[in-house]
Predict the structure.
Amino acid sequence: MNNLKYFSFLISFFFLFQSVAQDSTLFSSLIHKVKESIIFYNELSPFGKELFALEKLELSEKELNDLNEFNDDLSDSIDVFTLQWIYQNRIENALSQLVIHPDFIKRDVYKSLNEYIDVVVSDDRKLYNFSFPENTGGSYKSDISLMFYSGLSHPLIMNQNKIEDAFNPYFVFNVDGYYNIDSLNTSEGVKYLLQGGVQSCSKCYTNYISLVKFDGFKFVEEFSFSTFLRDFDTEILFDPLTKTINTVYKTDDLTQTCTCKASVNNAINDEIITDTFERVSICSCNFVFNGKTFIQSVKE
């Protein structure tokens, strides 16, 4: 009887070990797929005139079916924009599988992938942003951005460039992604402060910052502030020690007034310091955290 129990234990342990090994192999293969796909994707130029032979691309059956569905006159080759679209989907699908893998939270995904795509993680390791260039060739340097929050009971990851729905839990996030996420402990639970920016035309630069919280179903934005300027060097800075946000910028033809316009709980606070573009050269906006959200600081 004891021998039978021992044998049963060995069988159970074998299948458990095999399952763990398979999970680990799948995780590693997804990491490899993202790396391999992004390397090839980054080599594609939107200005290229070259056609790519389908037989040399090693596309999956699903990718070929997708091509046939969206191209009634599909030939034996495709252009660079179509190939970019295929690889964008391939990268997104691999990331989608990666974040719901049981090993995802245990592994250092930043270390594994940040050399290949931008990976931003909150310091509580619950909120993630993955982004990479959309590479359209235009002056708007848009990114493909994917958000993931491990606190959802049914984890979801969505490409903000494709899904804009009020029922989308990630709806409030910026389509161009972020370069930093801070988590703030408050009496209302953990909130996240996200910072990002994008070159929005040949000489237009947008910077943005927002405070969000998860309400049990979706993320809600409680504060947001942005700048739209010609100056590449303008920054919106957050000091985690004093919990203050500040920016200094020069007015120009895009932002002609010195104004600290922010959205706090969907209400616009717009204090115009001066409305004479010719007279203003330098503007300053400062916000302080009051324990729940950010409010404009009182002038000294």
